[in-house]
Amino acid sequence: MDKVETKTALELIASRLTTLSGVLDKAEAGQGADALDALAGARLAGDMHPLAWQVASVCAQAQQFLDWSRGGDVPNAVAPVTSWSDARALLADTRAEITVAAAEGLSAPDAKRITIAAMGVYVDLTDRRYRDHWILPNLYFHLSIAYAILRMKGVGLGKADFMAHIIGDLRPIAAQETEAAEA
Q1: Which CATH number fits the domain that encloses residue 33?
Q2: Are the C-beta atoms of 58 and 149 separated by less than 8 Å?
Q3: Which of 18, 26, 90, 99 is the most buried (most CB within 10 A)?
Q4: 97-123 pLDDT, tens digit each
Q5: Helix axis angle, 84-101 relative to 51-69, nearest 10°?
Q6: Sign of dihedral through CA atoms 71, 75, 78, 80?
């Protein structure tokens, strides 16, 4: 993956970390520390990980892509985050690191092996398959689950909160375009 593709992927990841931060900001509005820690432990379903873990998993995907882009390798593991404040701190640190890295001119390796020791399996992926079929789907999955947990717990979120990265690009339709569309 060349420098431009790597930078683009890091910028996309940074914007989704910003989206997650904005969603958590909304959840914090008017909440006390006890309520936030209760939210951090909330689960969408009994067999799923809690919100704090979902945030940590989004950060883990971002960190794994960054470390791989720098030529390193980190285990496929999620930090043991359980409190609201720890999840927020991890997210802030990850956002800062990814934002800085997007300007570094990294060029990701051509291939990636992912080992899932607990299952006794591995997969070899090209650089693009690693990005498009592993990192980004996992990142979006855990971001979506975090969003869904907060919605389930009554946080006033809408699609605009999830799509915050594109809201600044919206433009009004010119009057003549509106008239032509209505005709």
Answers
A1: 1.20.120.450
A2: no
A3: 90
A4: 999 998 888 888 888 888 888 899 999
A5: 20
A6: negative
- For the residues of the chain, what is the DSSP string, one character each? --HHHHHHHHHHHHHHHHHHHHHHHHHHTT--HHHHHHHHT--SSTTS--HHHHHHHHHHHHHHHHHHHTT----S------SHHHHHHHHHHHHHHHHHHTTS-----SEEEEEEGGGTEEEEEEHHHHIIIIIHHHHHHHHHHHHHHHHHTT----HHHHTHHHHTT--PPPHHHHHHHH-
DSSP string, 35-83: HHHHHHT--SSTTS--HHHHHHHHHHHHHHHHHHHTT----S------S
Query: How would you classify the pairing of strands 111-116 and 121-126?
Result: antiparallel
* Domain, as residue range, for 71: 3-182
Q: How many separate domains does the chain show? A: 1
